[in-house]
Amino acid sequence: MTSSTTIAKKNPQTIEEFFEENAERFPPLLGNTIAPDKFLQLCTGAFRTAPKLRECTLVSLVDCMVGCAVLGLEPNTAKQESFLIPYAGKATLVIGYQGWITLASRAGMEVVCVDVIRKGDTYHISRGTDPGIQHDIDLEAKRGDVLAAYCVIALPSGRLFNRVVMKKELDAVRDKALSQSRQNDTPWRQYEEAMQLKTAIIRGVKHVPKFGDHRLAVALASEDAIEVGRPFSYGDGLDLATPAAGGRRPRIAAPRSEGAFPIGDGDEVAPQGDPDALL
Question: Taking the model in full, what pTM does it have?
Fold first, then answer.
């Protein structure tokens, strides 16, 4: 995807300095999705809104930012396109369902509708040569538990494609995600319906032709890896944390008032406050 590139120059004292010193490395990855100056502001802003990210390894942080650049998604903003999640000393990039809608749009598709079907709703799902979804909601009636999630995608040809994900499949995706995390504040626990909608979109875009935009293919590859518990790096081919001159490894430090800490195996991490909500 990208030729080998070294993203490390000096011995930055803070994560903000690291990205400022390597700012010129990101524009080629961004393309025309996000202005480079804005992307740098988003990168440094993410660490201010989620202090726990400062406890994560440099390699995982940079890989997440490379992922945001490659996908052209804003991290930790009101757009809710993507989120940097700190866990067990590593940062993880999570694409929100709004991010999947953005990626689909860039690939020439339009997510016309994404919703959940609940008990009490009126619905009809047709298959075969004339597939479609009819879904009606009585605004005055009490809706029950989720039965399924679905999305409708408009292709460049004008044809509509729909994908329905039954509750059993949604639960399997949720249970797999929860089995890989011991956190109580995971997206599936806090925002289950949003994650069900996201799952429907992912299942939908997986089954339609791709129209030349590589970002969607990269995002799908990352999602496939997550589902099977396989490591995935957006920075494959990039030398993200080469030791700087003198053999010293770049470090991430907290603000001076909080005490500086280097990141590395066996290093102690200064205690930080609870992170802000990321999803």
Answer: 0.72
Q: What angle do CA 276, 53, 21 make, to 5 degrees?
A: 125
Please name the residue that has the structure tokens 């200064």.
270
199, 149 contact by CB (below 8 A): yes
> Residue 89 in contact with residue 267, Cβ under 8 Å?
no
Task: Read off the pLDDT band of 11 (50, 70, 90).
Answer: low
Spatial distance between the Cα atoms of 24 and 9, rounded to a whole number of angstroms:
11
Tell me the residue type at 209. P
CB atoms within 10 A of CB 100: 28
Angle between helices 97-106 and 214-228 (to 10 degrees): 140
The number of angstroms, rounded, from the C-alpha of 138 to the middle of its chain's C-alpha atoms is 34
Q: Tell me which amino acid residue 111 is.
A: V
- Angstrom distance (rounded) from CA 91 to CA 86: 4
- Kindly tell me the burial class for residue 82, based on how many C-beta atoms sit within 10 Å of its own C-beta (0-12, 13-18, 19 or more): buried
Considering only CA atoms, give the Rg of the chain. Answer: 21
Choose among 26, 67, 4: nearest CA to 238: 4
DSSP string for residues in 90-159: EEEEEE-HHHHHHHHHHTT-EEEEEEEEETT-EEEEE-TTS-EEEEE--TTSPP-SEEEEEEEEE-TTS-
Between residues 228 and 278, the one the model is more confident about: 228
Closest CA to 43 of 185, 202, 237, 29: 29
Q: What confidence tens digit (pLDDT) does each residue in 191-222 have?
A: 899 999 999 999 999 888 776 678 888 899 88
